[in-house]
Amino acid sequence: RKEVEQDPGPFNVPEGATVAFNCTYSNSASQSFFWYRQDCRKEPKLLMSVYSSGNEDGRFTAQLNRASQYISLLIRDSKLSDSATYLCVVNTNAGKSTFGDGTTLTVKP
Amino acid sequence: NAGVTQTPKFRILKIGQSMTLQCAQDMNHNYMYWYRQDPGMGLKLIYYSVGAGITDKGEVPNGYNVSRSTTEDFPLRLELAAPSQTSVYFCASTYDQGGTDTQYFGPGTRLTVL
After folding, report:
1. Contact B50 A45 (CB under 8 A)
2. Cα(A75)–Cα(A81) distance, rounded to whole angstroms?
3. In principle, which of A85, A96, B1, B87 could form an S-S bond with A102, CB 3.0–4.6 Å?
4. Contact: B100, A92; criterion CB under 8 Å
5. Bridge partner residues of B6 (DSSP)
6. Does the pLDDT value for residue A23 go beyond 80?
7. What is residue B27's predicted lDDT score, i.e. its pLDDT?
8. Which residue in B15, B45, B21 sits closest to B31, CA to CA?
9. CA atoms within 13 A on the CB side of A27
10. What tens digit of pLDDT does each residue of A54-83 get?
11. Residues 6+ apart with CB under 8 A from B59
12. Residue B30 DSSP one-character state
């Protein structure tokens, strides 16, 4: 079993749709959680950190469920510019970082 | 700040050749990472370092070596290149506080082994 597993995708949605991505992790010692965005095999860039209380940044909402070892990302009112691959990342407090394989989103007009 | 820089951007190697991928950061970050990304896959951790003189293996260390003699530099060495090492290599750094901080990535090195 992979340490971090994401929805395989791809997701193809119309503009304005709401889309949700899921991610599970197996290491109960995991401490920090993130969503990164990657465009066309360029370098990944941080989209948002994920906190236990849940957090929101504009159209993006991230949730963490430590008991179920589950992370989610919700994108509301999808834009064409949201088309990218979304990577779930889980860190231990020893600095080791594990990435999921990514979920590809294509937003169509 | 230049951030995280990687050289070269592209390289073609023949089987059995060696090379060093360079990575440098000017943000005084203590943690640095090397990842590889194969087509359609996520990033796999090769090696990481929590500070100068300290390195540790990640998920896929075989065929690679690293050193961290300074805070700024974290080179990745391929000793005997194999076609399975064809990939995109990303270096990243962070000022880690127990794994809570953002990683900043370099632009990547695209390596082909023929």
Report:
1. no
2. 12
3. A85
4. no
5. B23
6. yes
7. 92
8. B45
9. 18
10. 899 999 999 999 999 999 999 999 999 999
11. A98, B44, B45, B46
12. S
